[in-house]
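hey m, so remember when u said the tokens were messed up on ur end? i reran from scratch. heres the input so u can diff it against urs
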Amino acid sequence: MLNLRVDNLASFQAELIAAGVTIADEIESYSYEKSLHIKGQRIELYEAVDVEFEGSPENTMSMR
């Protein structure tokens, strides 16, 4: 699966629909991201919620 980060998922969804791209589902919202899938493709578009994303342990690096 290919994951692509976008700045404004709702706006990009509207552009894709206008261009004739078939969307597989509605925008799903979580505390850390919003996501959307393109029908027939293994592509996920997501808009990170930076407050949640930046504070998660997986995204911090310890310099030793």
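this time it looks ok to me. The chain is about 25% helix and 25% strand. if urs says something different then somethings off w ur setup not the seq
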